[in-house]
Design a protein that fits this description.
Blueprint (H helix, E strand, L loop, with lengths): L1 E6 L11 H4 L4 H11 L4 E6 L3 H11 L5 E5 L8 H9 L4 E5 L21 E4 L4 H12 L1
Helix pairs in contact: 3-4
Bound molecules: 1,3,4-trihydroxy-5-OXO-cyclohexanecarboxylic acid.
Length: 139
């Protein structure tokens, strides 16, 4: 099984960025642990701060991977283009958020991804990515 994790803007700063909300671990550290927990999964990881690069990667992986774990970060709340890209592909997309977006500002309650995602995992910290892997393995 091939699973790609796609992270959006500012998630390259995990570990340094607002640790009270996002924790103190970098994604690279977390990703190494995830890979060793699931040796049977062929993982890939991509992060970009640029909306078009995220869309390009969703299109590229959307016909070759078995699933995408997508944390589009702030673009979740603004990007019609990312929502349309998810509609266009075959692979299931699971929307991930580290924080509970519904307990934060109102603008974080709107998602262009939720209506086109297979499911959402919100508010469980970085463990949300592992939960996403479990969901894809079971589907
Ligand atoms: C986030 C929540 C978004 O609202 C925010 O813009 C992020 C991270 C999360 O993982 O909790 O950058 O997607």
């Amino acid at each position: 099984m091939r699973i790609i994790i796609i992270n959006g803007p500012n998630l390259n700063l995990l570990g340094k960025r607002e640790p009270g909300i996002y924790g103190d671990q970098s994604f690279e550290q977390y990703f190494k642990g995830l890979q060793s927990q699931y040796p049977q999964v062929d993982f890939d990881y991509f992060q970009s701060n640029i909306e078009g690069e995220l869309i390009d990667r969703i299109q590229k992986e959307g016909f070759s991977s078995d699933g995408i774990l997508l944390n589009a970060a702030a673009y979740t709340h603004t990007s019609v283009g990312i929502g349309d890209a998810i509609k266009a592909i075959d692979a299931p997309v699971i929307e991930i958020h580290i924080s509970n977006t519904f307990s934060r500002e109102d603008f974080r309650h709107k998602s262009f991804i939720t209506p086109v995602a297979k499911g959402i995992i919100v508010g469980f910290g970085l463990d949300g990515y592992r939960l996403g892997v479990e969901a894809l393995l079971k589907s």
